[in-house]
Structure formats: structure tokens, C-alpha cells
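quick one, two chains, predict together pls
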Amino acid sequence: MEFWFDFASNYSYLSVMRIRELAPEGVVWRPFLLGPIFKDAGWNNSPFVLQKDKGAYVWQDMPRQCAKYGLPWRQPSTFPRNSLLAARIGILCEAQPWMTDFCERTMLANFAEDRDIGGEQCMAEILTALGQDAAAILHAAQTDENKARLRERTEQAKARHIFGAPTFLVGDAMFWGNDRLDDALAMTLSSPQSSSGTAR
Amino acid sequence: MEFWFDFASNYSYLSVMRIRELAPEGVVWRPFLLGPIFKDAGWNNSPFVLQKDKGAYVWQDMPRQCAKYGLPWRQPSTFPRNSLLAARIGILCEAQPWMTDFCERTMLANFAEDRDIGGEQCMAEILTALGQDAAAILHAAQTDENKARLRERTEQAKARHIFGAPTFLVGDAMFWGNDRLDDALAMTLSSPQSSSGTAR
């Protein structure tokens, strides 16, 4: 199962935090940026900002969802946060054994600790806490080569017709939203040949 | 619990069909029209039509959801169908003991039988099958007084900040989407004073 998510997306937060227990292996991490996809739709911001009533609802829904899943929650004072740097680190490190830890800690920083995940300081602290060489990773994440990888990833998202996050791809089947994680996992288990990123 | 829905809304179909078993009593039916709400958002059609990738996803999601709930499914050849007449009948008859039957049969006509629920013939057949005086109801549904009731209902929806359907209101708490029906029912059961339409 490919797990496409944006570090700025609050519903992606729920799935990132649930996926270690639900799918301890077989998850192909696909960090990407929603911004360019929203821009193609004619939106200059998250629909949760542009659509006032929907946005207000989301901040009513999130604490209830977090309570249901036993997750901490603190409404970010800035939404959506800039997830560019986190996505660049994510795409650089997505095959590392500590990818799940990095994603969980970054999501918690954004949605439980109200920290600015867009800044180098927050990212460096998380990487250091994971025992990694933060300076080296921050440098590598911001090379032209890695920037191009993230742009290519977002183009892949468009080519796969992804319009929101989180999105789960099982072969050609798309599941959109944290509410579909269980359905996506059920399909993954019933069709093991589709369980890893065959559609790259 | 107030259950706000549009007969043209495919995710409302799922909730209409599930609600008899899940909540045999205590449901306050609130048929309304999404169109004027979408229009206020600047959209001249359903987002499932305007946003191509999301729309394509919905027709992939619906058969899976229907299979999960054991519901019949046939993608409507016209989407969204005109739900004005059905909504006028619904608001006229929402307190009748056969309201659940009317809603289920109208939804099945739209989403399992690909029938034009916007026409008088389909509505008359459903009403007659329910043992009702179809001609009298069709007449009463289209009086100025009843038309005004539906317009007022849609204004109430805007005042309650409803932006989509189905929407479940439990007191002041809003739950959006068929995926939140269980959560809304859980809150209804835990706060029985909020279980009927106190917020009219």
C-alpha cells in the first residue's frame, strides 16, 4: 500500500499516527505537497481556509477524532503550516528505518505541540533526537537534486489523480481520507501482490 | 439527532439506508437542498462534477461503500439529479410514519435503479406504493406555502453552517458525512437531551 500524505494535512496526521500499529510493514511512504494540486484546482490555500464553514467544522471534528484514536491534539496556531522542508526531508529519508519515527514526531510537532515544522530548528531537533546527523540531512534535503525529487513526486501525485491527503493506493485502487485507511488495509491484505509500490 | 440530507447526494443515500437499523427512533428528518449552499460557495454544480479527479474517485468509492454496507448500487446516468420535487415532498411529509420508507425508496430509485427522481411520475409511483394519495401530495408539495418551507429550511441549513450532506446535528455539535454517522449516534446516546430537534 502506498501512503500519500502531506505533513501540513491534519487528516494525514491521524493516519500517520495510526499506521504503525495497523500496518507494521508493507507501507510505502509517499510524502508529497498538496499545495501545487490545490493550485491546479484554482485554490490559493487549503479548502479548510477557503471554505469558512468547512474549516470551522474541521476544528470541531479533529479533537473528537483524536479522542477516538487516543491521540494528542492541539489546534495549530498557523494552518496550514509550511510543509516544504519536512516533505524534502521525508522524500530523502523515506526508505530509512526511522521514517515512521520521523513522520510521527513531525506530525506531533505540528498537531499536538503547535510547533513550526517549516523551520530548520524544529526539523533539526527531531532528527537529532532520532540519532541522525541533522546538519547533513538538512543540507542534503535542500540540494537541487532532492528538490527535483519532490517536484517529481508531486507530478506523480497529479498523474495518479490524487486530489487530497491522506490517499492510499493499493494497485490502481484509490482510497481517500483517514476514514478509508481500514478499507485500504483490508484490500492490501486480500491482494498481497498489490501491497508494495508496484505502480512507481 | 437531526439528519440533514439531500436526495441528490450519494453519500446521503448511504446514511438514509443505514439509519433505520442504527437509529430506529429519535431521528429528526431534515431534507434540504445543497444547491443553494454550493451556489453561495461560488459553485454552479456539485464538487463531484466540478472537481474531475474527486468526482472520478467518488464513483470508485461508492460501489465499495455499498458492498461494505450490503446496499445495492448503480451509478446514476445523470448526476446530480434534480432533487427539488423529492425535497418538497420530503419536507411536507417528514413527520409522517412512512417518511423513512419514502426516503429509502427515493434514494434507491436514484442510486440503485437509475430512475429520474426529479419527475412527477417516479414520485407518484413511490407514493402510491406506500399507500398514499399521490395526486394530493404532489399538489400540496408544490403550493407556494410548501415551496416557502423548503426555502426556509435551506436558510436554516446556512444559519447552522451546514456545508455538505449528509450532516448530523446533535445539539450544537455537527458531524459531516456518512463516515460520521456512528460518532453522531454515539453522542446522541450519551446526551439524550440533545436527541431530538431542540434547535429548530
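The longest strand of chain A covers residues 2-5.
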